Amino acid sequence: MHEASPVELLLQDHAAARELLNALAADTADLAPAEWATAPERIGDRFAALRDLLLLHFRREEEAAYPDIMQMVSEGAPETDIVAGFFRQETDADLIAHAPLRGKMQVISQMLADLRRGEGDLALLAQELGEEMECMRDLLNRHAEREETVIFPMIERLLSEEQLTAVRLRMDAIGSEA
Questions:
Q1: d(CA 22, CA 133)
Q2: CATH number at residue 49
Q3: Per-residue model confidence as pLDDT tens digits over 48-59
């Protein structure tokens, strides 16, 4: 049985996150007033799964993939110095993109809590929740596209099979801690 490479694992995370976000967008689109009482629980469960997935994905990148790969690349031959510098710039920018996604998750969590309590203008809150979900979907798509078109191909090009296996093992260790 083929064990997924670190890149394949991160791509699987992207696919699962996109699927959950699309389902959440459908859940929050045009909530009818009669649905507001049950929507927070239904949406909240799905959102919790998305949040957990993204937080694990971020940890895999922040604590294992990018630092381990940067070390491996920087230990390579002198001709990889330019590539290592470019990789560092790209991954630094990519990791910065985690902050707005974490922020959106906090905002949405608070909105779901407010909906559960029935506080405020529920119609307005439901509309704003849909807008926040849409914004988060846009942020995630831009983040994933950068990784999928720039960073992940570089990883596959720069690392040997042995190095990819070492990164995968570190990522698996992080996954088992969660």
A1: 9
A2: 1.20.120.520
A3: 999 999 999 999
